[in-house]
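I'll show one example:
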Amino acid sequence: MKTLLLILLVTITCHSAMGQDRIRQAPCFDSVMRQQADSIKVNLAKDGFILVKEASMTMESEYEMPVIVPLTQGSWYQFVFIGTMDCKLYEMRMYDYNERQVIYQKHYGQDMASNIFNFSYIPKQSEYHVIKPVQVAQKKHSKNLCGYIMMFKKVK
């Protein structure tokens, strides 16, 4: 009887844990996005920036995908986010450790470069920051969006 009760309890626990919705950063691949990223890497390297971190991520339309980055006081950073080409709206926000918004950009998907965000930032303190990109697809509730984020640091 105790064994049956234990098996039932484990089954219920496993079933409820698997049913929870979670936001995960799963990688994705988009050849056009990869070409754009490679071009940006070359141009920023010419300006003295080195690539510190990069990641591709699967995104869902209208949902932020938070990316946490550690930044060092006084260092010059360049951030690039590339979104799926056929979205109608892109937004990028960055918050400091105290949850104050330090960067906000918005693009509408009307031209070739509208899916790319490129901004510089020099933090006033060494602390973690959160970058929150959002894409809004042409079709409602699209779950097959791809995002590519890169973090560069100026070398002296």
Observations:
- The chain has one domain: 24-154.
